[in-house]
Design goal:
Helices cover about 25% and strands about 15% of the residues. It is an alpha/beta fold and about 400 residues long. The chain has a domain of about 280 residues: Rossmann fold (3-Layer(aba) Sandwich), CATH 3.40.50.
Length: about 400
């Protein structure tokens, strides 16, 4: 759910975390990847540009989801879980500017219901447990294992990644959670108690009035959200300057899926996920975990830090000054030193350890099929342990480029 994009900064920090987790000789990535990074021998997807359509078994039949491999590294393979639900991998294309230079192999992946994958219309499929099972089927199909498998989740993808880590920890080498708290009620409370009071009272009243009247498809609703909330907490740039991958992801979003599980916007949570909360279970996550927060994002940055303290081997990164909300730009990074927390101990991640990040790459969507059926509805954590919204609905604001 939550943030539209995690651009430059997340790619940088994720890359730094991945290299910290492997032997010392790999901690300083080169500007250009080794020749072996482009060795596609043994990969059946070599002639499809890395694209692989994976069959997914569901209670409603078998469907296909879209994945795309980039690079070759037998030790570090990252599966990217986009936000939404119902967004696409497109807004994460910033990773193309950073992971190859670090020699990191990674996979784009459109979850079931997203634009590049099949889009069944049976809403019984849109449940968290089924999505977790889908990720496990994707992992098996891609041949990822505990010797190389890192899972990255942004916004709603963070919910999915946390649930996967709790159910299938035996397959993971590392976990990265970007801009997603461990509790939907806490996320909603932060929106109502901290972010909404910062808004123009008249604009907020009009937004809430439109929501109560069920008029969230009214262009005025999105225009108000864009000018009074999204440009302050999702992507802190004028809408006319939003990067092309972001606009493509918005254009291709599955609004029905998004609204059903998240609610009508990033301004709080009211869908099927509204009671989700894994704070009491964070202590059970034993894989090395990195949480990435944002000072102006829709998630409480302190909650992101607490999450890292409550898992068994966690680190949290939050910049001392960050002007770009949930979408980080390269110029926000240079020359900074980011606090990194390991349980109760604080360290710094130097600028040279954090690579740098953001760029696009287009893909033509494969054929999709739709299947229509019925519809159905779908704490406090322990003390710190010692260390060892996603993208919005498919509405394009009138002021944004199309």
């Amino acid at each position: 759910m939550q943030r539209l994009v995690v651009l430059a900064r997340t790619a940088v920090l994720a890359a730094a975390f991945l290299f910290i987790a492997v032997p010392v000789r790999a901690q300083t990535p080169t500007q250009a990847p080794p020749a072996s990074y482009y060795d596609h021998s043994g990969y059946p997807d070599a002639f499809s540009g890395g694209v692989k359509m994976i069959p997914i078994t569901t209670p409603d039949g078998t469907f296909r989801v879209w994945t795309k491999r980039v690079g070759n590294n037998p030790r570090i393979k990252v599966l990217l879980l986009h936000g939404g639900p119902g967004m696409t991998h497109e807004y994460l294309e910033a990773f193309d500017s950073y992971f190859p230079g670090a020699g990191i192999q990674y996979y784009y992946y459109d979850q079931l219901g997203s634009f590049y994958s099949d889009q069944p219309e049976d809403t019984k499929l849109w449940t968290l447990p089924r999505f977790v099972d889908e990720v496990e089927q994707v992992r098996k199909a891609l041949g990822l294992n505990r010797d190389n498998f890192y899972l990255y989740g942004h916004s709603w993808g963070g919910i999915l990644a946390l649930e996967y880590a709790l159910k299938y920890p035996q397959h993971l080498k590392g976990l990265i959670i970007s801009n997603m708290m461990a509790s939907a009620p806490a996320y909603d409370a932060y929106a109502h108690k901290v972010l909404m009071p910062q808004m123009d009272p008249k604009a907020l009243a009009e937004i809430l009035k439109l929501e109560k009247a069920g008029k969230t498809h009214d262009p005025k609703y999105m225009d108000l959200l864009m000018s009074h909330f999204y440009v302050k907490h999702v992507l802190r740039m004028p809408p006319q300057q939003w990067p092309d991958p972001v606009m493509r992801a918005l254009k291709h979003a599955n609004e029905t899926l998004y609204t059903l599980m998240q609610g009508p916007s990033e301004m709080g949570l009211s869908g099927r996920l509204e009671h989700w909360d894994v704070r009491p279970r964070l202590k059970d996550i034993a894989v090395p975990t990195l949480t990435i927060g944002a000072r102006y994002g829709t998630m409480d940055p302190k909650a992101m830090q607490r999450m890292a303290e409550r898992v068994q081997h966690g680190r949290s990164v939050l910049p001392a000054r960050q002007p770009s909300g949930d979408v980080r730009r390269p110029e926000d990074l240079h020359g900074r030193r980011d606090p990194v927390h390991r349980g109760r101990r604080r360290r710094t991640l130097s600028g040279k350890d954090a690579l740098t990040a953001a760029s696009p790459c287009g893909h033509a969507p494969p054929g999709r099929r739709r299947v229509s059926t019925g519809e159905t509805g779908c704490g406090s954590a322990p003390p710190a342990r010692r260390p060892c919204r996603r993208a919005g609905p498919a509405c394009i604001p009138s002021s944004a480029p199309r």
